[in-house]
Design goal:
Length: about 110
């Protein structure tokens, strides 16, 4: 017997994306992330404060990106970002702040 046309389609692949950011205590931290696309798009989400950790289920193959900034911190402070997809680290960066943003992009 064939399937009825009213049967729901099979579920799409599910992926789990985790965005995380850490930095030196003090100062002001802010950043933005997007599950797919480019930073600066209308689908990006902003956050403030560190540490930051967010896990999202996505029903499509992700191309996550993240940018984190620290201001008002002493010289040589550290800021890090990391993105994992399905438990695998796809991007990580640590930079010295102020003056540089940590930018992570997974593909």
């Amino acid at each position: 017997m064939g399937a009825c046309s009213s049967d729901p389609p099979p579920p799409g692949p599910q992926h789990t994306v985790e965005f995380s950011a850490t930095g030196t205590a003090g100062g002001t931290a802010f950043g933005r992330y997007v599950g797919v696309g480019y930073l600066g798009s209308t689908s990006e989400t902003t956050f403030s404060g560190l540490p930051f950790d967010l896990t999202l289920p996505l029903g499509y193959v992700p191309q996550p990106k993240m940018q984190v900034s620290l201001v008002g911190v002493p010289p040589n402070s550290r800021i890090s970002c990391r993105i994992t997809v399905d438990g695998r680290v796809v991007a990580a960066q640590t930079v010295t702040a102020p003056g540089q943003d940590a930018v992570c992009a997974g593909s």
